[in-house]
Amino acid sequence: MKTLIVKCFLLLALVCSCKAADSIWQLCNTNSNISASSQVSKNIDSLLATLVSKTPSQGFVTTTSPSYNKKEKVYGLAQCRGDISKTDCSTCIQDAAKKIREVCPNQSDSRILYDFCFLRYSQENFIGKLDTGAGLIYFNVANVTETDPKTFDNELGALFDKIRSEAVLPKSKGLGKGKTKLTPFVTLNGLVQCTRDLSALDCAQCFATAVGSFMTTCHNKKGCRVLYSSCYVRYEFYPFYFPLDPAKTGPSVGRISSVRLSP
């Protein structure tokens, strides 16, 4: 896999409420160009309306656009992070549906990811298929100083073994989260989620691929997010999943860089 370093310096702050935010990853496949007036474009709009209306109730939906011509058919998927409310899910999916048509107006293969939801559509049937062909890694450029690298690797590995095992259970719906104490004053927080159309085996494989970056790009870093179309994994030194611990919430400011992954 080829990696392309992207200049990206951000201030990382703990988000304490589910307000609308910018997307953290978007992909417009330039090999899937269509015209704005085409039937495929109209089918995408119809599909997005379905995803917006149906996703909040279950947190996940796959659907296809009605079409008499198979060449104009569009497949869609939307999913919210498993720890957020239906109201926040609805807000995120609405934002995603609007934003994806703005940033990918002439592509029939597009996807967008926010902190709280993911949305994707394509003329190719991707539903139920593992996809780690393209992705993005965000990492805190600061190194871990609270403990030695070997201890950190062991604690990080044990935490993610646990939450990955949790996520592939049917009752978990692809979500695993947890935390572990690095020191009496420092807690490591982790979360994994795969799209719910995947089998348990494919979900586990996606996690394994993503977590592999913890020992390369993100090795010994104070925070990391690995994003793929089929799953994402994340760890931080502050609480970022719900329910938040009011006694431990607070900003964690640092310089963030990113690495884009391409097939």
TrEMBL record:
It comes from Arabidopsis suecica. It comes from the Eukaryota. Residues 1-20 form the signal peptide. InterPro entries: CRR_secretory_protein, GNK2. The keyword Hydrolase does not apply. This is Gnk2-homologous domain. Residues 22-126, 134-240 form the Gnk2-homologous domain. Keywords: Signal. The keyword Ribonucleoprotein does not apply.
